[in-house]
Amino acid sequence: MSIHNTSISVFAPASIGNLSVGFDVLGLAVKPIDGTLLGDVVTVSATTAANSLTVKGEFAAKLPSKKEDNIVWSCLLIFNEQLLKAEQSPVFVALTLDKKMPVGSGLGSSACSVVAALVALNTFYAKYQGFSFAKNVLLKMTGQMEAKISGSIHYDNVAPCYLGGLQLMVPDENVISRLLPSFDDCFYVMAYPGISVSTKAARDVLPTEYSRSDLISFGQNLATFVDACHRQDKSQAFAVLTDVVAEPYRTDLLPRYQASRDYLTAQGALAVGISGSGPTLFCVCDSEQQAQKFALWLQDNYLQTALGFVHVCKVDNVGATEL
Ligand SMILES: Nc1ncnc2c1ncn2[C@@H]1O[C@H](COP(=O)(O)OP(=O)(O)OP(=O)(O)O)[C@@H](O)[C@H]1O
Ligand SMILES: N[C@@H](CCO)C(=O)O
């Protein structure tokens, strides 16, 4: 097939950064059970004119109007730079971003755009020029792009969004992220209240130092959770899903969060937490019936604007995928 008459579209899913116990080091990709595409789609087509970027979709208007300020454009620039370093010739492309994800939502919105763009470009070049970057090289590029947005490298959204499942960030640049066994039978209710919280602002409220007892709790909760994942011990895993690093300092940014958390916990949720830097709340449930009940409650009690939504999700084990 000629490079000039076809296009590649890639979907990249929402994710729960931190998963309460793993600040900046754990992330879980999720997908709504009703088949809704909760994530962004980027399409790449060859063009004979100059490079271009078109933005459409429900949340397009929330993005900067100049294409140079859209992270998808930065992805194209870094990708082309890397192509040249690999002695490959970039071609002109027309990019389209279908911005389905609310910005500043805690669902990994910028990660969805970054991953969809870089995977779409990589797939495009693989199919039509027989060249592609290895997964780890592409993952590093996604980390650089995420850092450009939030001010520090953290892979807890981009890694699960790209690779799927529950990912643990490893401080080894040859590994970066490792897949952990997750609990595929659980349901994750995701409630986005319809307001925006910037990741940078939610990082700025965190202390620069922590007490020894917080340090011990953090290490113990994360280690116990990872061990429980490997043993598939669901009750142990979710019993320690407590965040001592970020949640205590971020609840003030999240109207109705504390009351919702208390209610859902009292009603038997396996765990409740802030997705990424918020404002999305996630609630882990054992059964679909319980998840649907909590979804209705969150719809009535956690949402604040008409832009808000609630989805009952499961783990997305696939990650970024060509449509
Ligand atoms: N394609 C894009 N998608 C999302 N944000 C973008 C994009 N391009 C540029 N931006 C800008 O990047 C910033 C993203 O902010 P932030 O990191 O708080 O949001 P986020 O990635 O949506 O957060 P979260 O991970 O909590 O969902 C905003 O200022 C937004 O205008
Ligand atoms: N780990 C990040 C996730 C948001 O992108 C944070 O909590 O600040």
Number of helices: 10
CATH architecture group name of the largest domain: 2-Layer Sandwich
The rounded Rg comes to 19 Å
Strand percentage lies at: 15-25%
Mean pLDDT: 95
The helix content, as a percent range, equals: 25-40%
Domain module tally:
2
Q: Describe the largest sheet.
A: 8 strands, antiparallel
Global outline: globular
CATH topology of the largest domain: Ribosomal Protein S5, domain 2
The distinct bound ligands, ions and cofactors come out as:
adenosine-5'-triphosphate, L-homoserine
**Top-tier CATH class of the largest domain:** Alpha Beta
Describe the structure.
- The chain has 323 residues and is an alpha+beta fold.
- The chain has two domains: 3-180, Ribosomal Protein S5, domain 2 (2-Layer Sandwich), CATH 3.30.230; 187-312, Alpha-Beta Plaits (2-Layer Sandwich).
- 37% of the residues lie in helices and 21% in strands.
- The protein has helices spanning 71-85, 109-129, 135-150, 158-163, 199-204, 212-231, 234-239, 247-250, 257-266, 288-301, and strands at residues 7-13, 15-17, 26-32, 39-46, 52-56, 93-98, 166-169, 177-180, 187-192, 271-274, 281-285, 309-315, 321-322.
- A hairpin with a 6-residue loop joins strand 10 and strand 11 (281-285).
- Helix 1 crosses helix 3.
- The two termini are 18 Å apart.
- The model has no long low-confidence stretch (mean pLDDT 95).
- It binds adenosine-5'-triphosphate and L-homoserine (HSE).
- L-homoserine (HSE) is lined by residues 17-18, 23-24, 150, 154, 156-157, 199, 202-203, 246, 276-277.
- L-homoserine binds next to helix 5.
